[in-house]
User: Fold this.
Amino acid sequence: MDRSISPGAAIVLDFIGQTEAPNGYGTIYANGQAKLGIDITTWTLDQVEAEQPAWTRRFGSSACGRYQFMRDTLDKPGTIQDIEGEMGLTGRELFSPDLQDRMAMHLLRRRGWDSFIAGRLTMAGFALSLAKEWASLPVLATTKGRKRTVMRGQSYYAGDGRNRALVSADTVEAMLARALAAERSNPGQNSPGGKSLPDKAPPPLVADADVSPSKVAQPAPSGGLSSGPTLSTAPAPTVAPWWRRALAWLSA
Assistant:
């Protein structure tokens, strides 16, 4: 897993990768990589995109990589090209495991990861969003799917004759709960963009307050609560020199 991915997000991405492509980062839909004898992790992003239409014709889908990136996703056309533009990629980057992790993290954030960990998106809502991106994941509640109404545990794309959920709703809920706990136990480890957030700067030093004799704190009066020390504004008492006190004693 790319080191820029936070602990909670890594749990989600590992789960998706193991479900979508258990054979790893070099996977082509229907294990086409074995039939073609190629390793797409050594190809550039442009090379992968150029070959995806041929994979669709031969294997039935353009999905490839650990997260099964499609040239035309089921609900967002031109996904890889979209990612390329949004991430500022040139297309000359290798389709390496680290790049695939970062691209999948981009999709995760697009699907509401930041809102989920901040508590602005429910688990069921986030799971629905993930199910729209990855057809092997189930919805957690009855909802209107792509083709028809789908029940808890079914793929969002159930009824299209191709897709079905490969894991249970209970398993997804448990995974998301672990991811949320991991993220909250490591606050600030990674920013949304994948870079470590700096520690907060210490508070500025404050100069010592004026503690002249005329501002000595006095105890608060009894019978009530004080919001802070009461400062006396009376002038400090004047003390006579010792020799004047001695003369006064002798003349007494």
In short: DSSP finds nine helices and four strands in the chain. Residues 191-239 have pLDDT under 50 and may be disordered. Residues 1-10+19-111 form one domain. The CA atoms of residues 155 and 164 lie 5 Å apart.
